[in-house]
Write a structure and sequence with these properties.
CATH class of the largest domain: Alpha Beta
CATH topology of the largest domain: Alkaline Phosphatase, subunit A
Number of helices: 23
Shape: globular
Distance between the termini: 113 Å
CATH superfamily of the largest domain: Alkaline Phosphatase, subunit A
Helix content: 40-55%
Oligomer: single chain
Number of strands: 16
Number of domains: 3
């Protein structure tokens, strides 16, 4: 039977021959409406090793929701963290830049500069409504990751009540008048999910309708591992796995809500780890010091029905800097400016963009499935240098070949030795030199960060990081005693726990215990500034003041750019009634952290004790101008003004 379009010309000709008006032609079918851009849900998992998920082969895992996501979408094998630290890794995830380029090199003393463009900023400019919910203060908005997010939900403040007099006698009551506020440094996955569900409701119901980008960060698998019941009992012998199982259940609630709202089919979901966990392998219990796969190999799962093939496994390796370019291509959005990562969207099955129908203009064509030569991937950790004065570490991954550049460099073939047990550096010196030269060229090419990225953390920020289990960076490139080369972290790792044990003993008021813990450190590493400063405080507090002052002075001599060492030495000098040299130390500390109320108050007190009334008054006024409610500062000012 002829179609109506083929019959129409004949009917029109017949009508004309009979002198009749031509019949009306049927309207052409309407053009298909352009597809709306997909929504985006990014879930970042703190401190989760890839090999602890069921989808990555861990038989003892209880991760049904993540495993289902892998079956319904894509699983990336060999996803690599840029650093074994939360803030630098997240900065790279959302900028497509390596740490030397975005400038965030550690959790402390660095802020993502406003000059760097983020994934959220690109999507917000294209009409996406944006929201973030983070689980720990290490990702506080003050660190710059809030750029592009219309709402940024982070741990805040909570009431902290002191026991009343009655409570001190055994009663259970609290005194409302004594209530204060304490900072919350982390929150459970259940609370993070509750907050994320509220954000999802707002985003999904906003008018006019449009795409959204929601980022949710879960912190729970971070040490100390203490999952709630029933995971605590079920994973009694492996609480780390229990924490991951708990997070899996909580993110499942979020995915269920997405499906219940009818949004799952039009949402690009990405789940990625920020870094892994040592769990005792290679001598590292947690993370930050080493660049082995225990802390660099992270999970990466992606799902977008109709675009990403179900069950595809991307062989990798890919870097965290590749995620943002890949997400933008899948969303049909333009690439990030200056991005150093490469999209691997073409490796995800069907590939292309559901919104634009192909590769975003200007997006890199590199990817693990292109058949090209392996693209070198970079990782680093400055943590051993900044915290302990040891050597920093840098890694280069090229296919299965991996170099860890250290005072004693290491070379591994990950295809034959995935657990990095057989160092090939001595057996293959030519390949080692080749990889080292390649790494040197790459490091030079990756630099150029905005100087604004370096921003000394205040005392509150450092306290938050230490509460989360991080030793806040104590300096940059601390010199070694006698000009000796920095210690290889492989030699220093056994000292790390002793230093932290000594610190905790000192905080708990056990200086003798602290000295016992720190003695082996100083025997093995006499120039360790952290151990010198801590043991100096311990010696001073036990009455061995001259010995304590000598060690504190030595710590400052070795790492004088470290705020804590200056403050510790200044406090000891002040208590020893040596006000003038204490002033010198507090001035140096304040130069390192100009916003520190701790250092400014101490400087004012030392100046007053040294007889400089006008200088002390000037500092208290500056303190109270910045913090009008500083009670100790107000009391000191009143005392100075009342003095004859």
């Amino acid at each position: 039977m002829p179609s109506v379009f083929r019959a129409a010309p004949l009917a029109a000709a017949l009508a004309l021959s009979l002198g009749l008006p031509p019949p009306a032609l049927p309207a052409p079918p309407p053009a298909p409406a352009p597809l709306a851009p997909p929504h985006l849900l990014v879930i970042t998992l703190d401190t989760v090793r890839a090999d602890r998920l069921g989808a990555y082969g861990h038989a003892a895992a209880a991760t049904p929701r993540l495993d289902r996501l892998a079956r319904e979408g894509a699983l990336v094998e060999g996803a690599q963290a840029v650093a074994p630290l939360t803030l630098p890794a997240h900065a790279s995830l959302f900028t497509g830049l390596y740490p030397p380029a975005h400038g965030v090199r550690d959790n402390a003393d660095f802020v993502l500069p406003a000059s760097v463009t983020t994934l959220a900023e690109v999507l917000a400019a294209r009409g996406y409504r944006t929201a973030a919910v983070v689980g720990a203060a290490v990702l506080a908005r003050t660190q710059g990751l809030d750029q592009g997010f219309a709402s940024y939900d982070e741990p805040g403040m909570a009431p902290a009540e002191k026991p009343s007099a009655a409570a001190g006698k055994g009663a259970a009551g609290k005194s409302p008048a004594s209530a204060t506020l304490r900072p919350i440094v982390e929150r459970r996955a259940s609370e993070v999910t509750d907050r994320a569900l509220a954000a999802l409701d707002r985003l999904a119901s906003s008018k006019p309708a449009g795409p959204f980008f929601l980022w949710v960060h879960y912190f729970d698998p971070h040490a100390e591992y203490a999952p709630p019941e029933p995971y605590r009992a079920r994973f009694k012998s492996s609480p780390y796995d229990g924490e991951i199982a708990y997070v899996d259940a909580q993110l499942g609630r979020l995915l269920d809500a997405l499906a219940a709202k009818g949004l799952a089919g039009r949402t690009l979901i990405a789940v990625v780890g920020d870094h892994g966990e040592g769990l005792g392998e290679h001598g590292e219990s947690t993370h930050g010091v080493f660049l082995y796969e225990t802390t660099l190999a992270v999970p990466l799962l992606l799902k977008l029905p109709g675009t990403i093939a179900a069950g595809v496994r991307v062989p990798g390796p890919v870097s965290q800097v590749d995620l943002a370019p890949t997400l933008l291509e899948l969303l049909g959005a333009p690439p990030l400016p200056r991005a150093q990562g490469a999209s691997f969207a073409a490796s995800l099955g069907r590939g292309g963009s559901v919104a634009a129908g192909g590769r975003a203009p200007g997006a890199p064509a590199a990817g693990p499935a292109t058949g090209s030569a392996p693209r070198p991937l970079y990782s680093e950790t400055l943590y051993p240098e900044r915290v302990y004065g040891w050597a920093p570490l840098f890694a280069l991954r090229s296919g299965a070949s991996k170099l860890i550049d250290a005072p004693r460099p290491e070379l591994y073939d990950l295809s034959a030795d995935p657990r990095e047990r057989k160092d090939l550096a001595a057996a293959e010196p030519a390949r080692l030199r080749e990889r080292q030269a390649e790494l040197a060229r790459l490091r030079e090419a990756l630099g150029g960060a905005d100087p604004a990225a370096e921003s000394p953390s205040d005392a509150e920020r450092r306290a938050q990081l230490e509460a989360l289990g991080y030793a806040a960076g104590r300096g940059t490139g601390a010199a070694r005693a006698g000009g000796a080369p920095p210690l290889d972290p492989k030699d220093g790792i056994r000292l790390e726990m002793a230093i932290e044990d000594g610190r905790q003993a000192l905080v708990a008021g056990r200086p003798d215990d602290a000295l016992a813990r720190l003695a082996p450190v100083l025997n093995a590493d006499p120039g360790n500034a952290a151990a010198l400063s801590l043991s100096g405080v311990a010696l001073f507090s036990t009455g061995r003041r001259d010995e304590g002052l000598a060690r504190l002075a030595r710590a400052v001599e070795i790492a004088g750019e470290t705020f804590e060492y200056r403050v510790n030495y200044g406090a000891a000098l002040y208590q020893a009634r040596r006000a003038a040299p204490a002033v010198e130390q507090y001035r140096a500390a304040l130069a390192l952290q100009p916003e520190s109320s701790e250092a400014r108050y101490a400087l004012a007190a030392a100046l007053y004790a040294a007889g400089d009334r006008e200088g002390a008054l000037l500092e208290t006024r500056a303190l109270l101008a910045a913090q009008p409610g500083h009670a100790a500062g107000k009391k000191l000012q009143d005392r100075i003004l009342a003095a004859p």
